[in-house]
Amino acid sequence: MGPPGAGKGTHADRLAEQAAVPAISTGDIFRAQVAAGTDLGRRAQQYLDSGAYVPDDVTIAMVRERLAEDDARSGFLLDGYPRTLEQAAVLDELLTAQERRLDAVVVLRVDQEVLVRRLLRRAEIEHRSDDTEDVIRRRLKVYADHTVPLIELYGDRGLVHEVDGDGEVAEVRERVLQVAYRLTLAERPIPGA
Ligand code: ADP
Fold first, then answer.
1. 118 given a catalytic annotation
2. Which of 19, 43, 140, 192 could cross-link with 186 by S-S, CB 3.0 to 4.6 Å?
3. Residue ranges of region NMP (predicted)?
């Protein structure tokens, strides 16, 4: 978890690779659906463009389907889900039904002004429709209002691991991987190998 621009996608991919599980990014799935012009993409586009969350029923149905795929059977890393209490409740249900549980919630912490700067820089490179200053501020507010409460929820369960997300990508990556090593969710690379 982490606010827009915190580096969720960047670190999720590496962490998932190290833990040998798929990284499932709801934002990436939505963008791919928009690009492919599917029904789901058409339904999601207006929300993505304005920086609002896609309605829970749409997001939840999509995640249910994705988690039922074969590659998620031995584990998965979620990037950008859950973002609302309702989404978290459904995730609990899904996991309980399969007698599985969350191992950890990694929260990337980054200062708001650093985030805005990063996202504006990304806008120049990637041209994402939601990386304009107005929409960025909206996304940060939506995150604070709807998603920050989940940190407390998972914190009460002892699952939260906060990582300082400020610094070079390689530095932050190392901090994220240290959490995974500590919890033995990922194997430590053999030195020199
Ligand atoms: P960021 O975290 O930088 O906003 P993402 O790629 O994770 O980037 O998400 C982009 C957009 O996709 C969000 O602003 C939202 O519209 C939609 N989205 C992604 N995940 C969810 C979710 N779990 N619930 C609702 N909307 C979502």
1. no
2. 19
3. 25-54
List the chain domain ranges: 8-184
| Per-residue pLDDT reduced to its tens digit, 56-96 | 999 999 999 999 999 999 999 999 999 999 999 999 999 99
Which structure tokens are listed for 116? 């805005």
- Strands 160-164 vs 105-109: parallel, antiparallel or unpaired: parallel
pTM listed for this prediction = 0.92
pLDDT of residue 193: 66
Q: In 3D, which of 15, 155, 136 has the Cα closest to residue 75?
A: 15
Q: Of 178, 183, 154, 184, which is closest to residue 164 (Cα–Cα)?
A: 178
- Centre of ligand 1 from the C-alpha of residue 27, in Å: 5
* Range 8-184: architecture per CATH: 3-Layer(aba) Sandwich (3.40)
Is 64 catalytic? The answer is no
